[in-house]
Amino acid sequence: xxxxPIVTVLMPVYNAEKYLDEALCSILNQTFTAFExxxxxDGSSDHTENIIKKHADExxxxxxxxxxxxxVKSLNIGINLSKGKYIARMDADDIAKPTRLQQQVDFMxxxxxxxxCGSQAIAIDENSEAQFQINIPCEYNEIRVQMLFKxxxxxxxxMLDTQIAKSILYSIHYQYAEDYYLFxxxxxxxxxxxxxxxxxxxxVHSENITSKKKAEMRQSEKKVIKYNLNQLFGExxxxxxxxxxxxLFTQNFQNLTYKDVESHLLKIKIxxxxxxxxNNDVLTIELQRQLYVFLSNSSEKLxxxxxxxxxxxxxxxxxxxxxxxxxxxxxxxxxxxxGRGSN
Length: 343
Hints:
Elements: E1 7-13, H1 20-28, E2 35-41, H2 48-53, E3 60-64, H3 71-81, E4 86-89, E5 95-96, H4 100-110, E6 114-124, E7 130-134, H5 140-146, E8 159-161, H6 162-168, H7 178-189, E9 191-203, H8 209-212, H9 214-233, H10 239-250, H11 258-275, H12 280-297, H13 303-309, H14 320-336
Parallel strand pairs: 1-2, 1-4, 2-3, 6-9
Antiparallel strand pairs: 4-8, 5-9, 6-7, 6-8
Helix pairs in contact: 7-9, 9-10, 11-12, 12-13
């Protein structure tokens, strides 16, 4: 490779021998070749190092931490050492499609106002068999709004502006949701997008962080929620407000009432009319969708009536399937009780 790389592919690895070779090959065989592959071995004790060293490719830069420091510190080491104009994240158990880097570079170069670009993904199992598609929003305003309620980026599928990454870095205080916090900050200050192509095979298995550290991840997600709501409300957010939002975030509706949810969502809508942080039309549709999801999956009675009578209701954001599902849920018990008298 001649000259400085356009992309730094940043791959932290820790005891990754099982899937690492497949992940490395998927990057080294990209159609786009002007990259460096920066591998941070975070103190692995298995055969990870041997697998890395068998790939004699000048584009590989290999570093090894003397002891395990965790993914946040390893990522920040990598960001600070990155030479490319862009950083593409990659995990040691995933597989990149051959055109992944090319498609993301093309987008970033053609749209310099965008500082973060992700993609769709296909979930695979331990045997690399496709399981289901992971589809996330593509358009900036939709991503921005939905970041209030979930992380709308797949971490190992993103490409981001290196200078922005170096100016923010990942935060150890948000470990296990460090990507959600970083992407929230970028999304609130710069344009972002997801390509509408499935450019990554995302491996789902028992050793995923999301499987092993679920409780810790929830606590960090709670802190990101607090950060995002603080930006919107412009004030310290109460524990009760954060708790309500976290229940919506995790779709754990057991301890929520219709009054709790509607009041919380209305507060978001009213605050945004003042702050203008989000596109009002997109936010209106999302808030109605959140209310619909709650009414469809909670034990609330007559959810259909509550939806259409709510201040949050807008015909623009309601689809026929939503109406039908909620209507059936609301009135099925009434209809099935008709005509069942004894003869």
